[in-house]
Amino acid sequence: AEYMGALSHFISSTMLLMLLGLLLGCANAWQCEDAWFDEDISLLDPNVRWDERKLSDGIRVQTRGNIVRDWLLFKETSVFPAHSLDELVDILYTHNVERNKEFSHSFLQGSIVQQIDANSDVLFMTYSGFGGAVSPRDFCYIRCKRDLPNGGMQLVFRSIDDTTLCPLQEGTIRGQMLDCAERIEVQSDGSVLVTYILKTDTAGWLPKVVSNYANIDVMLKEFQQLHNLAD
Question: What DSSP element (H or E) covers 200?
Answer without folding.
Answer: strand 192-201
